[in-house]
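Batch manifest, entry 17 of 40.
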Amino acid sequence: MDRYEMTEKESEIMRSYIKANIDRAIAENWIKAYYQPIVRAVNTRVCDEEALARWIDPEKGFLSPADFIPHLEETGLIYKLDLYVLEQTLKKMKDMKERGLDVVSHSINLSRSDFDACDIVEEIRKRVDDSGFGRDMISIEITESIIGGEFEFMKEQIDRFRDLGFPVWMDDFGSGYSSLNVLQSISFDLIKFDMSFMRRLDDGESGKVILTELMKMATNLGVDTVCEGVETESQVRFLQEIGCSKLQGYYFNKPHSYEEVLEIIRSGKLIGFENPQTSAYYESIGRVNLYDLGMVASDEANSIRHAYNTIPMGVIEFKGDNARFVRSNKSYREFIERFFGIEIASSKTEYRECNAAFIRNAQKNCCEQGMKALYDEKMSDGSVVHSFARRIGINPVDGSIAVAVAVLSISEPNEDESYADIARALATDYNTIYVVDQDTGNYTEYVSSVGEDELSKVRQGTDFFENLSKEALERIYEEDQQVFLDRCTKENILHELDEQGVFTTTYRLIDTGVPVYNNMKITRLHRGNRIIIGISTVDAQMKLREQLQKAREERTSLARIMAISEDYLSLYAIDKDTGRYLEYTSSDEYESFGFAKEGEDFFLQGVLDGKKVVCPEDLPKYLEGFTKENVLREIQENGAFKLHYRLMLERGPHPVTLKIVSFNEGKEHQLLASVRAWQIRK
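Output type: structure tokens
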């Protein structure tokens, strides 16, 4: 019977039947666990499986989940079904392992009433621990809708799961109206996009734009993504391009019982499983958003905009002297085919020997030297391609190396004063550039936005060195003027260029009324009797250098304190307002805990770390006392916060004191925290 045509009476009859027969359905195996694969977008290998419940009734036949799950939720009996599915899943995983088959992590779905019927977190923990599998092998899927009005309660349960090591996924993201608000308040390991997003992809560009931006948001949050409902090759290709981590849908496979899965394996038709050792490597490749550098092409980058609708980007995997294109957007595929005659049919191209200098440059700079690289390559038609490459990761199994490559711009053949000349002389972080004829003093001034690769010609002039002296008297900070005038003469500049090949100097400008550090770098162009001068703002770098020097001095002083008093275990500096912290120094014994040296929230991290190392008997007192509110209140009332407890040190439980005091440094309000071991009398 079509469930949408059920009368109210028929629905009530079904409800009574489900309630009366749930225990029998479980005992007699009317309910079966079905498994739908989730594949890694970058390699289309199965990396997870979702466990689903199917009720095959001897009297009523195959029941849709919509026919029994809502009734079990209403009657508070859904926990029996969900725990049964978990048990069947663990049994299936164990059987696969014994058969010598690959075992990937599985996800299970929970309902809101699970949390009311029992301590579902503890029930799941016990079953998973008893199975012998790691907790990270079972992911918990929770829909936004079940968080509902009891937000704080559900947040606490999600935090419990994650603290125990279970990944938690937000299921059906986008199906409600408060998904973004939930994400802002609760941490998830993965976002599962509702299948409605797939249906919208064919409705026009707006659906693609929205999904692309949501993927970028998830990437920035450090959260993995799954799109469900994937049914076509074009959807797969688009999701690969925008950096979706994982894919699920009938394009790959529908849900199957375990018996059917074994039969598919025997027939050799099953999608291959991912080697767990390579998961982190492929995750890093999959998170590269191939539309994320669209802002690089300015309005003047006509050569790129004319040829391609977005910046050409791809990921190349190198193995020895061979390479293959792992991921690419449409623009990159067109670029590779145009210049190299290589057709990238899909993301699964085979390794091949590739001698194109454009690709070999990426290999040399990123594989061999392990660095980011800006480089130019002259093409057969005389144009120059300006590219950026970055190493993403190394496959721990076969040693292959993944490199992301982006084509930033293309200079047309015989372009006068091309960017290639300038890029070889200066880095891309200069906001003003002068090309000067050293004999006549004639010059051309260019400006650029820092980090961009295109220059705009602003003006031309004469007598550059004379104008440089005039500008020094008008714009340079008074204390720096004479030093600048003495150093930056034409004779000094040319002499230093002859001796060292480069001339640099730092000074302060007062254009805004506040002294701002600037750096001038001068070198010779490769052709003509010209020099090139780059001006960049280095105020932040200079001030950072001062701060680092100060930090080094502070660390030295504090290290001496610890050397004098051996009972100090660790010292931290904490921003009073934000909670951001930095460990100044720590003892070897404290170092063995492996705590983070710096972080965003000292008080939150202190709670998480404390659960691992504080003696169980002292933990309640520690958690109750160690809150930001308590710390700040006691400092205000008593001048210091103190908390006594025992740490599980290598030598055994040992009493320590956490002491936090406040001090002001200029306009900054800081806290200093110390962990000090008690001296026990013998």
